[in-house]
């Protein structure tokens, strides 16, 4: 990776409930989790949100730092995926409850995929 700094991801046992809930207290971040809930890894450029790229980057960093997502860098491109297995193991049912409530209330529905 030629000098590029790898992002820190908390180990599964380091993922804290307050950190996860704090990361999910924003509609943009809930929307990003909804998009990533299909289990596919997405390039940052595929994600569409009504915010500046720098703000989107901030939201993705908050999710990663809380252990909600995993980020992978490949050259100049960054990819992100939901850490569903880790979250389900640590807090059974939490993610499904959040996703169900978000769909029901349409929280984060304005976040999606480019071209989709």
Automatic annotation (TrEMBL):
SMART domains found in the cross-reference section: HTH_ARSR (SM00418)
InterPro entries reported for this sequence: ArsR-like_HTH (IPR011991), HTH_ArsR_DNA-bd_dom (IPR001845), WH-like_DNA-bd_sf (IPR036388), WH_DNA-bd_sf (IPR036390)
Family annotation (CDD domains): HTH_ARSR (cd00090)
Gene3D superfamilies: Winged helix-like DNA-binding domain superfamily/Winged helix DNA-binding domain
Domain HTH arsR-type residues, every copy: 9-102
Gene Ontology molecular function terms on file: DNA-binding transcription factor activity
Name the UniProt record assigns to this protein: Transcriptional regulator
Species in which this protein is naturally found: Actinomadura darangshiensis
């Amino acid at each position: 990776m030629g000098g590029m700094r790898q992002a820190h991801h908390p180990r599964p046992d380091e993922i804290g409930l307050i950190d996860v809930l704090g990361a999910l207290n924003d509609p943009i971040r809930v929307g990003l989790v909804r998009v990533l809930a299909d289990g596919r890894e997405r390039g940052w450029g595929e994600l569409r949100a009504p915010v500046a790229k720098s703000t989107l980057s901030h939201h993705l960093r908050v999710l990663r730092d809380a252990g909600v997502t995993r980020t992978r860098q490949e050259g100049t491109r960054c990819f992100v995926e939901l850490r569903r297995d880790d979250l389900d193991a640590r807090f059974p049912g939490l993610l499904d409850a959040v996703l169900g409530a978000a769909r029901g209330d349409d929280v984060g529905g304005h976040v999606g995929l480019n071209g989709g």
